[in-house]
Amino acid sequence: MTMMKKGLGAIRMACFCIFGLLPTQLGASEIPSEPDESKRSWNMAQLTKCFWVSNELKLMVFDGGGATDFSPTKNVFLSLHRVGEVGSTYANFDLGTYFTVVSAETLTSDPGTVVVRLIVEDLLDATTPFKTHRFDLTQALKDVEKAHAWESDPNRNGDSVNVKTAIFRLEEED
After folding, report:
1. Between the chain's N and C termini, which has fewer beta carbons within 10 Å?
2. Taking residues 138-167, what's their average pLDDT?
3. How do strand 161-162 and strand 89-98 relate by DSSP bridges?
């Protein structure tokens, strides 16, 4: 049995080396950025909280209105935004719907890795009402930075650019 576990560990390590996967993405689910042509729009009056997690990163909570049943109504989005002299680059991510957002912060575990921790209240779970969700933004930040680097390109015409990228929802912590 232990030989089998060692063999599986070697196969995982080979996959990391071959495909260039980040260790933080193990067991993670991908959240793609919202497309520019997204039909979703929010009235600014629905914005109930805005956490500035860093200079380029904000978490926005919109109130989706009342519910006829007991269900979450807070829609949470994460926005990466690089302001440029000629144009900006950005990527927006839908993190889901929750009852209450308690806090948001960045964590620095490894050099070059950016993880955001989101603490929410789950009113349906009496045993552990507060849940911690973690999102790995490392690749998305690199993609936004790469797109931002060509800001001075004369063909850009000063337009802002929506970067197609993804972040990763990591396994939950209690």
Report:
1. N
2. 77
3. parallel
User: What global pTM score does this model have?
Assistant: 0.74
Torsion angle, alpha carbons of 31, 171, 119, 70, to 10: 80
User: Could you tell me where the DSSP H helices lie in the chain?
Assistant: 2-19, 138-149
Torsion, CA 117, CA 66, CA 123, CA 26, rounded to 10: -40
Q: Give the count of beta carbons closer than 10 Å to the beta carbon of residue 89.
A: 23
Of 147, 148, 141, 146, nearest in space to 84 by CA = 148
The band of 37, judged by pLDDT with boundaries at 50, 70 and 90, is low
Stretch 7-32: mean pLDDT: 49
How far apart, in whole angstroms, are the C-alpha atoms of residue 65 and residue 99?
A: 12
